[in-house]
Amino acid sequence: MFRPALRMTAAVVTVSNDRVRRHIWTLWLVLLLPIMRAQAQDRVELRPTPDSMVAQITLRDGSTLLGRVLEVTSSSVRFASAVGESTIPRSTIISVRLVHRSGLHEEGLWPEDPSRTRLLFAPTGRMMRSDETYFTEAELFFPSFQFGITDQISMGVGASVFPGVGIADQIFYVTPKVGVYQSPNVNVAVGALIAGAKWLVAQSPVGIGYGVATLGSEDNSLTVGGGVGYGNKKAGASLLMVGGTTRVSKGISLVTENYADLSNGGALWSGGVRFIGERLSVDAALFGVTSAAVAIPYLAFIYRY
Q1: For the chain, give me the number of helices (H) and strands (E)?
Q2: Mean pLDDT across the stretch 95-104?
Q3: Longest CA span, the chain
Q4: Plot region of 216 (φ>0 → left; ψ -120 to 50 → alpha; else → beta)
Q5: Which residues contact 165 (CB under 8 A, 6 or more apart)?
Q6: Which of 180, 184, 185, 173 is nearest to 121 (CA)?
Q7: Domains, the chain
Q8: What are 5-21's pLDDT values in tens digits?
Q9: Which of 14, 20, 263, 264 is the most exposed place for a label (fewest CB within 10 A)?
Q10: pTM score above 0.90
């Protein structure tokens, strides 16, 4: 009953080896051009920090400052921290992270979850920043790259790597996503997973279009979304997704992601643990359906550049 939704793992329809190769080069160009553009431009968005928030500024030498941005000019930033006020050249700032004051802990500010833009498989309403790129490996056979084009638009590209299967028979996929509304505690986005393969040419493209909203802070949030699967140029199953995360320590978060098939009935549940580092996060979880007493292990990691 979940077949229309589970087909959504590939992105370019191919009918010959030559066309497959052309699509692969196109995907890599789509991936690399925004990255090179991001390296060449100053994309750090600076503004005075609201009273309810705390700003963490990362400098080019790798050091971080915690406090509030008081004033922004074309060349510098006036910043207030625990040791007083200072003036920082804008050219030395590579990123700014805003966190609600409630997110401060006894040991300071916990590291940002590199996987904050997704649950286990499904996306959250949060968006990648324009200076972010990360690599994902899910279940060993589904690697992908995700990158922020702007603070409101991101793109992912990937392909399966099943052993013993030729490149023409692998699954290719892209995951465009657009932020509709972004704030510290309310984030809404729309997007799609678009997939294709040579053996899916009669049905391609297949995938799902979705809308999703995330409510809450980085440490504790609820995500609700809806989507419609499609294939063979027709709409498929309608899905409702409810999930969330709760941070239980500096390096551990609990994650759940659950689906209801509104078209055919039935449900899929999941739950797991996320191990969080400065750049790397690892998910270990179980997926199952309500109609069977069987659970499938799920393992994935994200490395943020």
Answers
A1: 2, 20
A2: 79
A3: 65
A4: left
A5: none
A6: 173
A7: 3-36+112-304 (2.40.160.40)
A8: 333 333 333 333 444 44
A9: 264
A10: no
